[in-house]
């Protein structure tokens, strides 16, 4: 347990004991509650890879702020330590403590930008560990305050120099969709389900290695399709509102420039047709997967996953392409990979039901995963990327990637 | 987790203004990987934003989530950690034979039931879609595994019951148009095995027995079937069968009558020898009520001869069974409203520091300044008293500034804080006790209202026995509209009184600061004053009385703080006094002006302004006397860390409702003080005072003389047992001096007047530590 008292108002350690008691008593449903009212405090919690981040307050405050801050802490820690687990935190105890010290001051979030934190606290590496062991000086805090904290673009370190200037823009999109089976039998035979919801959540990720203080302008060919945009603090609002142009001074390194949603898409790149028919104690399963609209690029890492109903005694499933695994928690995982040209992959087999059960009265939901490189399925296109005061001729690179988010096919 | 927060906030908006989110209903569709809480929230939002245009899509979605949720119970095991848990359970449970027990806890089964409830809600909100919804619900009642011998799992039972409840609610809106649904359900009766669902269908049979043409025709068969399987039914179903049979019989005409009669007597016979006493009781009641129907099996002629005698039970029976069920009132929007984005919204109670929107029009008249009144009463008297005390305290200041040693003790005592309240008490000696109805305002003063209240109580008793109350008691589904007036009647039979002259008798406790034995004949006492310090609101006024018990005169008396080195006898030091604490400009102790000379046997008073800083530790003082110093300890009293906060009962209950949960603490103790007073009362006067009044007075006095409070209201039980003081309730309010956080105290009594009363003290205060300390203090001084 790592504890840091940040204010003069001392919080009793008892609260953690209370939390654990409750957590053990109530099991997993407790982990899902973001806000807990304990007898003395209000607790905010997030759970990241088995590590619980907890913060507490006694007075009214926006809970979103507390939780967002915890997420930031978790992000920064995993960024610094290259992952999150108990051992990593134990090994780098000093750094974690220093980070917390910088990130929060007297109960208020202070520096949460990882770029600046990096300048103040050196990330752990072998050399610094060696040094600290040899010299006995365990502090890896820099003595000077980063200049950026006082500048008007606090996210960017002031004096950056790169040997080769380059900037990469990645469009990463996730497709969330829900496909229903048809209520009417005839239609269900004819077609392959109704698209209830199909939308794309996308992010524009940038990786900039530019010297000096560059000013970038990014414009899209079709910005009108974007909904619910959310920007990195470096993006200026005015140009976006008037011309839908992103104008910003980028932080150094990898960052998320914006996120957006594109709603009401018409179709999905692949189809999944599950068919279940049960009779006299067994259930025949047949799942077909195929391309619907060829996006022009190869679709790979296709997986179909579904949970076997609890009333099933045994399952015998096989496919003509890819591998089928039934995991311990009765999840059936079919990894297809790419779709071959000559045949369409299919999974078939029988499920043996519990004795006394004639028909399967429940139907599983199929979760589909896929990945398409080089295409943004939303149709979003980047028009151009301009640089003002560029240091030299920088190298500009664009990439796009679409993968499935919550893609569900209900049978 | 962020999602959940956001959804919580959206939910608030969606309830108040569904149109905001109506176009975005698709975003709230549920995906199988959502947790139960998120699913439930999304569902609630969906059902509140449903509109005519979107309902079909939403409804279809609901159906899917139903269907999908039949398997959803596994979905939750996707969380890999849960799986181990689950496996363990599966290993253990069959041995114990408690299979179903675990399904009840299954979050997703309950979610499916929630969905069904949401469908019902939608149908009620948008009546023109009721039939669509009904279709879906009926489809749900069709058991999907008819051949499963073990019947339904627990999970499915919940869904089925919920579906029935929803169907029932929809039918209630317009019974005649849903005749077919009822018929359908009745036909399905044999396959509906879950008792709760089954009894609901049977209730519908009884309730809607005369609707349409087909239902009356199928009644004989239905009832025969029910009578046939009566003995194998569950308790609730049996009760409903009894009810339904009687209802049908009362409505029956023509040739079916005799069939129903024989069915009823058969069922009653069975019920009379049932194992369950509830059923036996009900059977007996019905036999008495309906004796005319049962006995006159073959003798209809006899009935006509004596219509009058038979009339009463029949009328009664008709009253009970054919009374029109009141239309269900729309679901009240009873959730508490908190500002979106606040912590209070998530935890559903006001967190400390939560600042609600001000009441409409409340901002115009808010600055009365700190008012000084310590007593209750109507507003006119209040303002009078404020002025009164004000002038007195001002004159007191003047008096004390002249610092005259020859001032005699008489004037000293008259300038004490008590005189203010005493003069306030003078003008209401005429009305000793003010009765007022709860419904009315507090200003009712005449004695006639006493009578009013008494009559009121009698009326209430009459109403308690009324037909509607009896009906709601007998009917299986007591209508909420029936029971609620009854409840409020009971509450209204408490009289709210205000005790007029109590403040005149408040005597603050006196503590000893210096004993004459230790202080060379100088005695120093102190008393906490209830008024607010004129120097700073953070200071507490303490009145210190110096008495010279020795034979010699004492000079240069002064009190100062321990750390205070600069203090000497010169007047100049008083003005140059620097603040003792660095973080605040308010000193711990405002220097008192010196008593230059105190003759033998003389006593004088001074007001000290002390800041205890919220500490309960004693404050160390130094008493300078004849050039020598004596260390002293001034013990703070938490009861005076507060000032009275005048409010009316409405404000009180509003505040109280904001301070629930972790801000509410209760302790119990006993209260015996008044018994002595009761005995005195018996002895001296034949005109006995009301016992309750004496209790109230002594309790109020005790509270007010030990803490600086405002008496908000006194509720007394009226009628019933004169010796039973249970329900007597006093409310006090105050606010903490340092931060003006309100603190509410409710004292409820229980027990008999002649014995020590059981007191439960409840404190509602945002400041947890202070509240608990305060509660302990109250519990300490009460007995």
Could you give the topology of this structure?
The complex is a heterodimer of chains A (411) and B (783).
Chain A lengths: L13 H13 L1 H4 L3 E3 L4 E7 L2 E7 L5 H19 L4 H6 L1 H11 E2 L2 E2 L4 H7 L5 H10 L30 E15 L4 H6 L3 E16 L5 E6 L6 E5 L5 H7 L1 E4 L4 E10 L7 E10 L2 E10 L7 E9 L4 E8 L3 E4 L4 E7 L8 E8 L11 E9 L8 E7 L6 E16 L1
Parallel strand pairs in A: 6-21
Antiparallel strand pairs in A: 1-2, 2-3, 4-5, 6-7, 7-11, 8-10, 8-20, 9-11, 12-13, 13-18, 14-17, 14-19, 15-18, 16-17, 19-21
Chain B lengths: L1 H15 L19 H14 L5 H21 L4 H17 L2 H7 L1 H19 L4 H12 L12 H20 L5 H10 L6 H13 L6 H15 L6 H17 L4 H17 L4 H13 L1 H5 L4 H6 L1 H16 L20 H5 L31 H24 L6 H6 L3 H9 L6 E4 L11 H17 L2 H8 L5 H13 L1 E6 L10 E5 L7 E11 L7 E9 L5 E8 L10 H4 L13 E2 L4 E4 L4 E8 L8 E7 L2 E7 L7 E3 L4 H10 L5 E8 L1 H12 L6 H16 L3 E8 L11 E8 L5 E9 L6 E9 L2 H14 L2
Antiparallel strand pairs in B: 1-2, 2-14, 3-4, 4-5, 5-9, 6-8, 6-10, 7-9, 10-11, 12-15, 13-17, 14-15, 15-16, 16-17
Tell me what you see in this structure.
The complex is a heterodimer of chains A (411) and B (783). Helix content of chain A is 20%, strand content 40%. Chain A contains nine helices and 21 strands. Chain A is of the alpha+beta class and 411 residues long. In chain A, a hairpin with a 2-residue loop joins β12 (270-279) and β13. Chain A has a nine-stranded mixed sheet, with no helix packed on it. Chain A has a four-stranded antiparallel sheet with strand order 12-13-18-15, with no helix packed on it. By secondary structure, chain B is α+β, with helices and mostly antiparallel strands. Helices cover 48% and strands 15% of the residues of chain B. In chain B, strands 1, 2, 12, 13, 14, 15, 16 and 17 form an eight-stranded antiparallel sheet that branches. A five-stranded antiparallel sheet of chain B has the order 3-4-5-9-7. In chain B, a hairpin with a 6-residue loop joins β16 (742-750) and β17 (757-765). Chain B starts with a helix and ends with a helix. The chains are: A alpha+beta (411), B alpha+beta (783). At the A-B interface, α3, β6 and β21 of A face α1, α3, α4 and α18 of B.
């Amino acid at each position: 347990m790592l504890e840091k008292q940040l204010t003069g108002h001392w919080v009793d350690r008892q609260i953690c004991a209370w939390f654990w008691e409750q957590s053990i008593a109530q099991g997993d449903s407790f982990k899902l509650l973001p806000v807990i009212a304990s007898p003395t405090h209000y607790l905010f919690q997030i759970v990241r890879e088995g590590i619980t981040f907890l913060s507490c307050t006694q007075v009214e405050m926006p809970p979103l702020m507390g939780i967002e801050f915890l997420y930031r802490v978790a992000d920064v820690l995993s960024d610094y330590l290259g992952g999150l687990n108990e051992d990593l935190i134990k090994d780098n105890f000093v750094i974690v403590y220093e980070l917390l010290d910088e990130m929060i001051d007297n109960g208020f979030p202070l520096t949460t930008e990882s770029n600046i934190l990096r300048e103040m606290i050196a990330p752990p590496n072998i050399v610094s560990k060696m040094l600290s062991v040899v010299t006995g000086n365990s502090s890896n805090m820099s003595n000077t305050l980063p200049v950026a904290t006082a500048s008007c673009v606090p996210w960017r370190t002031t004096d950056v120099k790169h040997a080769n200037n380059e900037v990469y823009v990645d469009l990463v999109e996730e497709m969330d969709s829900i496909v229903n089976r048809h209520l009417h039998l005839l239609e269900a035979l004819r077609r392959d389900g109704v698209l209830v919801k199909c939308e794309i959540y996308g992010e524009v990720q940038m990786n900039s290695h530019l010297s000096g203080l560059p000013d970038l302008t990014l414009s899209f060919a079709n910005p009108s399709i974007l909904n619910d945009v959310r920007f990195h603090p470096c993006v200026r609002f005015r140009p976006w509102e008037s011309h839908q142009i992103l104008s910003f001074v980028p932080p150094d390194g990898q960052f998320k420039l914006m996120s957006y949603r594109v709603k009401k898409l018409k179709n999905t790149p692949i189809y999944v047709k599950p068919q279940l028919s049960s009779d006299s104690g067994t259930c025949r399963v047949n799942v077909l997967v195929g391309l619907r609209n060829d996006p022009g690029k190869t679709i790979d890492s296709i997986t179909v996953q579904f949970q076997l109903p609890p009333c099933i005694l045994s399952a015998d499933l096989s496919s003509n392409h890819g591998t089928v695994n039934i995991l311990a928690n009765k999840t059936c995982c079919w990894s297809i990979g790419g779709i071959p040209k000559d045949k369409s992959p299919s999974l078939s087999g029988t499920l043996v039901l519990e004795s006394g059960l004639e028909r399967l009265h429940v139907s599983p939901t199929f979760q589909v995963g896929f990945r398409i490189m080089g295409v943004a399925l939303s149709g979003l296109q980047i028009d151009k990327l301009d640089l003002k005061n560029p240091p030299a001729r920088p190298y500009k690179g664009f990439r796009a990637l679409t993968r499935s988010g919550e893609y569900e096919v209900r049978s | 987790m962020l999602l959940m927060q956001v959804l919580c906030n959206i939910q608030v908006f969606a309830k108040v203004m569904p149109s905001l989110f109506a176009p975005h209903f698709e975003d709230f569709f549920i995906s199988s990987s959502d947790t139960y809480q998120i699913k439930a929230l999304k569902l609630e939002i969906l059902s509140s934003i449903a509109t005519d245009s979107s309902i079909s899509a939403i409804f279809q979605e609901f159906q899917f989530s139903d269907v999908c949720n039949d398997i959803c119970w596994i979905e939750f095991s996707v969380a890999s950690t849960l799986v181990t848990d689950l496996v363990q359970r599966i290993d253990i449970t069959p041995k114990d034979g408690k299979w179903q027990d675990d399904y009840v806890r299954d979050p997703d089964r309950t979610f499916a039931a929630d969905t069904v409830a949401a469908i019902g809600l939608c149908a009620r909100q948008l009546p023109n879609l009721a039939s669509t919804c009904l279709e879906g619900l009926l489809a749900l009642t069709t058991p999907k595994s008819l051949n499963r011998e073990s019947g339904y799992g627990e999970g499915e039972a919940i869904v089925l019951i919920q579906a029935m409840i929803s169907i029932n609610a929809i039918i209630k809106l317009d019974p005649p148009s849903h005749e077919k649904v009822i018929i359908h359900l009745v036909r399905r009766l044999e396959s509906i095995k879950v008792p709760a669902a089954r009894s609901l269908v049977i209730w519908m049979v009884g309730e809607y027995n005369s609707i349409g043409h087909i239902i009356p025709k199928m009644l004989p068969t239905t009832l025969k079937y029910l009578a046939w399987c009566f003995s194998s039914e569950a308790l609730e179903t049996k009760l409903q069968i009894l009810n339904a049979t009687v209802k049908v019989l009362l409505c029956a005409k023509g040739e079916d009558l005799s069939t129903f009669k024989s069915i009823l007597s058969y069922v009653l016979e069975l019920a009379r020898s049932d194992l369950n006493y509830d059923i036996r009781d009900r059977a007996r009641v019905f036999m008495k009520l309906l004796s005319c129907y049962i006995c006159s099996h073959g003798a209809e002629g006899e009935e006509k001869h004596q219509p009058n005698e038979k009339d009463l039970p029949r009328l009664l029976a008709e009253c009970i069974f054919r009374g029109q069920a009141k239309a269900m009132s729309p679901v009240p929007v009873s959730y508490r409203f908190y500002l979106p984005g606040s912590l209070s919204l998530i935890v559903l109670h006001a967190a400390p520091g939560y600042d609600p929107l001000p009441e409409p029009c409340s901002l115009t008249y808010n600055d009365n300044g700190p008012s000084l009144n310590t007593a209750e009463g109507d507003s006119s008297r209040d303002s009078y008293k404020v002025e009164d005390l004000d002038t007195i305290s001002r004159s007191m200041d003047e008096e004390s500034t002249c610092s005259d040693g020859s001032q005699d003790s008489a004037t000293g005592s008259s300038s004490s804080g008590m005189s203010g309240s005493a003069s306030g008490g003078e003008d209401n000696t005429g009305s000793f006790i003010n009765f007022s109805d709860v419904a009315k305002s507090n200003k009712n003063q005449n004695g006639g209202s006493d009578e009013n209240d008494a009559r009121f109580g009698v009326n209430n008793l009459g109403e308690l026995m009324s037909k509607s109350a009896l009906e709601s008691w007998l009917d299986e589904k007591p209508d909420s509209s029936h029971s609620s007036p009854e409840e409020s009647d009971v509450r209204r039979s408490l009289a709210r009184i205000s005790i007029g002259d109590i403040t005149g008798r408040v005597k603050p406790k006196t503590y000893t600061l210096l004993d004459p034995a230790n202080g060379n004949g100088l005695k120093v006492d102190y008393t906490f004053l209830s008024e607010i310090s004129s120097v700073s609101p953070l200071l507490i006024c303490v009145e210190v009385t110096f008495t010279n018990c020795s034979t010699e005169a004492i000079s240069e008396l002064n009190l100062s703080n321990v750390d205070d080195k600069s203090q000497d006898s010169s007047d100049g030091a008083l003005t140059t006094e620097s603040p003792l604490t660095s973080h605040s400009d308010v000193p711990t102790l405002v220097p008192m002006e010196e008593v230059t000379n105190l003759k033998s046997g003389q006593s004088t008073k001074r007001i000290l302004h002390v800041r205890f800083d919220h500490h309960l530790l004693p404050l160390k003082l130094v008493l300078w006397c004849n050039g020598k110093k004596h260390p002293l300890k001034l013990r703070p009293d938490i009861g005076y860390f507060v000032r009275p906060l005048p409010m009316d009962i409405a404000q009180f209950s509003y505040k109280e409702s904001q301070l629930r949960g972790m801000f509410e603490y209760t302790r119990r103790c006993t209260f015996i003080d008044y018994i002595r007073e009761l005995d005195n009362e018996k002895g001296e006067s034949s005109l006995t005072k009301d016992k309750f009044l004496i209790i109230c007075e002594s309790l109020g006095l005790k509270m007010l003389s030990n803490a600086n409070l405002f008496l908000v209201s006194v509720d007394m039980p009226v009628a019933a047992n004169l010796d039973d003081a249970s329900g007597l309730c006093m409310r006090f309010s105050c606010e903490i001096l340092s931060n003006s956080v309100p603190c509410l105290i409710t004292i409820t009594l229980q027990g008999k007047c002649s014995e020590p009363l059981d007191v439960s003290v409840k404190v509602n205060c945002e400041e947890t530590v202070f509240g608990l300390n305060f509660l302990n203090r109250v519990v300490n001084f009460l007995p």
